[in-house]
Amino acid sequence: MPIITLTTDFGEKDHFAGAIKGAIYSELPEVKIVDISHSISPFNIAEAAYIIQNAYSSFPKGTIHVIGIDSEINPENKHIAVELDDHYFICANNGIMSMIANEIAHSKLVEINIHDKIETSFPVLDVFVKVACHIARGGTLEVVGKAIDKIKPIKNLVPYVNEEQTQIIGSIIYIDNYGNVVTNIKKNFFETLQKGRSYEVSARNYKFKKIYTKYSDIVNFDTPEDKRNDEGRGLVVFNSSNYLEIAIYKSNNQTVGSASSLMGLGLRDTVTINFFK
């Protein structure tokens, strides 16, 4: 029996996440359910896309991922089921899948068409659960939907590069639990354009001339510990997902602050990299 994961913006207060689990267990008592996150910012497609992209591959092949973000069906927001990288994804066709699909081609993609058999105002519970359980029993995507060609993209998913290739203009797509801000600039994208040139990373009035490999690289461990003053210093790293991230060393919103709070950086804010000869 495969694993079913849940990623939603439902939070922990309301009944929604619990109701979904109950409905799955009612159909498949032996299934394993894993919560990836129920704390996605409401209707934040880019945040959900970032989290699911970086979580799904840790699960076994054949895992079924139910993603409940902005899932109310309408003429511009259809429901899809996707087989990609030997995993299954059930969500709205609103851009959530575009980060993964931008790097890995899907094997199968269908637009779910079982809505005429289900009356619902809660599609994650009534539609996505039905599809997930169908797949978990060994059912095929063709039974629950019609084949389509394209996954809807997220606008501005890829950073802008000027004609001279001397500047990358990216944007902040995610703020993590530490207040670190993650951009849409990936390491391989940066390295392809850098070509050995020096550079400067800019966000608001803050400028950085070095991108670190890990957070602790900012520390000079030759300096005695009682003489260091590294906590609260700003830095830029490529994080574990290979996205450019602006961080505060050992950040804590309650004490030293974070990149988001101290630098005034928020979602969709611009981050620029300028290259120099």
UniProtKB/TrEMBL annotation:
<dbReference type="InterPro" id="IPR046470">
    <property type="entry name" value="SAM_HAT_C"/>
</dbReference>
<dbReference type="Pfam" id="PF20257">
    <property type="entry name" value="SAM_HAT_C"/>
</dbReference>
<feature type="domain" description="S-adenosyl-l-methionine hydroxide adenosyltransferase C-terminal">
    <location>
        <begin position="170"/>
        <end position="272"/>
    </location>
</feature>
<feature type="domain" description="S-adenosyl-l-methionine hydroxide adenosyltransferase N-terminal">
    <location>
        <begin position="4"/>
        <end position="145"/>
    </location>
</feature>
<dbReference type="InterPro" id="IPR023227">
    <property type="entry name" value="SAM_OH_AdoTrfase_C_sf"/>
</dbReference>
<protein>
    <submittedName>
        <fullName>SAM-dependent chlorinase/fluorinase</fullName>
    </submittedName>
</protein>
<dbReference type="InterPro" id="IPR002747">
    <property type="entry name" value="SAM_OH_AdoTrfase"/>
</dbReference>
<dbReference type="Pfam" id="PF01887">
    <property type="entry name" value="SAM_HAT_N"/>
</dbReference>
<comment type="similarity">
    <text>Belongs to the SAM hydrolase / SAM-dependent halogenase family.</text>
</comment>
<keyword id="KW-0949">S-adenosyl-L-methionine</keyword>
<dbReference type="InterPro" id="IPR046469">
    <property type="entry name" value="SAM_HAT_N"/>
</dbReference>
<dbReference type="InterPro" id="IPR023228">
    <property type="entry name" value="SAM_OH_AdoTrfase_N_sf"/>
</dbReference>
